[in-house]
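Figure 2 data, in text form.
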Amino acid sequence: MAASCFVLLALCLLLPLLLLGGWKRWRRGRAAQHVVAVVLGDVGRSPRMQYHVLSLAKHGFSVTLLGFCNSKPHDELLLDNRIQIVGLTELQSLAVGPRVFQYGVKVVFQAVYLLWKLMWSKPGTYIFLQNPPGLPGIAVCWFVGCLCGSKLVIDWHNYGYSIMGLVHGPNHPLVLLAKWYERFFGRLSHLNLCVTNAMREDLAENWHIRAVTVYDKPASFFKETPLDVQHRLFMKLGGSHSPFRARSEPEDPAMERSAFTEWDAGSGLVTRLCRRPALLVSSTSWTEDEDFSILLAALESRCVAAPEASWLQVQDCASGKGPLREYYSCLIRQKRFQNIQVCTPWLEAEDYPLLLGSADLGVCLHTSSSGLDLPMKVVDMFGCCLPVCAVNFKCLHELVKHDENGLVFEDSEELAAQLQMLFSNFPDPAGKLNQFRKNLQESEQLRWDESWVQTVLPLVTDT
């Protein structure tokens, strides 16, 4: 009796889905090419998926993008009439029961909610899914694809289980379950993209998943910032962050000055200050895979090693709002830096590329939970011809070429020595920083859409 009731209940739930799926298959066959893109995260902080969507729209697809709308995406995405953004609701943390129970409730809620949203969205020829997070997205998207005749494309940015392992430990039951889940459902996709050759090889050898490497490339708006635009940016940021303000006011009332630049209202010319401070940028999402204390320790070492560098000012401008932001903000407030000022502004999507294109050096502290993905922040910096110091890990050599486009370091002491060397004669035009910048300017840098046309477009047209 109980078994019969269970079967009847299952049929009552599945029959409407099957009917809806059949209708969506018929509708998809009569419609122009359409793609559904899914991000179980903040769309505004998922640049690679934004670039996928923009490229798909540019090359004839209409796109429905589902994700959390916690921060503003790029204007190009918002203004393109081929792209529809559907906001998802994120279940807030429960305060009842053990953590495993809370996590289970959240996963079930997301699965049902995502299933409902996908089934009532315009059917797609493809479903593009960002992983991580892939739990429960991979299974739900695969199921919807089976019902509606859509082909599932997983874009592997990293492994979700390895990120969970940073918090819970690698042998936690949830982490082991997540690993099994990614491996099992990942094999059911029609096409897999990944961010490094190291990840492609790992997927093939350990997960029996064939993937195509699609390296991150900077979008067209990541480029060197013209000097007049730099000045306007510094003046804007100076309104809320004192390190960007001029140390002294110009004697000529026709002059306008920031900490780095000066504008002559009469001639309209903008010049860099001769004794300007250096501008160091370390973009961070304030997550567990970035040890921000390495940079803080290196800055303290620099103060001791080079006390004469009183002109040096270091800005640390963050691009993230992750869980460790408050922890590191408190740590920064406790530091007593000499000759160095640190600030952590939240930058709008339009201002972030302008800041990278105005900076003198980028520092990357991303170490990768799996050791198989590359920091996109470095890709963006290179697009702006910004030299980088990056902490070393397994596959970093696929992006950062030591002593060519930047430097690789192992710990805070090595980073401190690199900073001292790079800034010892700043702003000497013959210094190492300018040599790195020149190398980046002279290297052939493909932009995202050019690379996408070469790698992804043939796959989605042939699959």
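Caption note: The chain has a mean pLDDT of 84.
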